[in-house]
Each structure stands twice: as C-alpha cells, then as structure tokens.
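Milestone M4 deliverable, item 7.
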Amino acid sequence: MLVQQGKVIYVGSSNFAGWHIARAQGTAKARRFMGLVSEQSLYNLKDRMVELEVLPACKAYGLGVIPWSPLAGGLLGGILEKVKEGRRAEKDTQKEIEEKRPQLEKWEAFCKELGEKPADVALAWLLANPAVTAPVIGPRTLDQLIGSLRALEIKFDESAKKKLDEIWPGPGGEAPEAYAW
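Output delivered:
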C-alpha cells in the first residue's frame, strides 16, 4: 500500500544474512517489486563475517552495502593513543582493548608507517572494497568529518592489503570456499 501511494520508493535491509537477501529478492521478483537496493551491516576490519555470505549475496543481487560501525566502536580510530579519555575509559572498552592489544599495537604501528590516521585507514579499507557503497560514519566534530575525507585519497598496494589481512584476518573469503575446501 505504501509503495502504491508513492510513500516508499526504495527498500533496504539491515543485518540480513545472505539467505535473507536471496529470499527477499526472490519474493520481490515473484510480486514484480523492485526488491532490496541496499544492505546495512556491521562491517569493519575487526568484524568481517559478512564477507562469507552477505557481501557475495549483495554483489549477486546488485545491492549497495552500507557498513555500520566502520571504526568498531572507536577501536580502529587510534584508541591506544587515547585509551584513558571519555568512553574509552569504560570497563568494557578497557577489557576489549586488553584482549585486542597485540592487534591494536600492530594496527596503529602500520598506520603510523603509512603516515595516516587509523580512522582514515579503516575507512579507506572499506571504501577500497567494490561491494561497499559508503560506510555510516559518526563524526562528533567538524574536524572529524573533514578528517574522514582523507580516506577517499588513501590507496593500498598489494603489500598493504596483505598486511591488513594479517593484522585483522577475515573469515578466509566467501562461503563455502572459506571453510569447506
């Protein structure tokens, strides 16, 4: 009804599994609807499970991918330099920092070698993925917003991509190849 009234033109999903996307697209096709145009998922260097099935489904059905939490709740934003400030000082955040400290140290050292801010590198990594349309960012200040634009200029060579995969390994590719053979 809302579609017929012109109130809904495009529909996207959030946190769907790959099979949800396939089912939604099949249902839409059967009803002669456009179907989903985008999927909003948790996706960043630390949280890469969507690489198994969600990203392949989005590619197959032509959906844009809109990652949320691209900085993993601030973990990928240079947290070791700011570890005692604001919400970073909270008990749960401190626990996660300690659990991930070896990776975070390698991550921040890698970003320093590149001469870039960790937050910008994390965003650039997402933007380098052709499946990604645009990450959802949450700058609190104008400086943070302007700084995020730097991510558009950062490019990775194969060596840098390999290093990022070593620091923040993904699931190993798309399913079922990632785990079945």
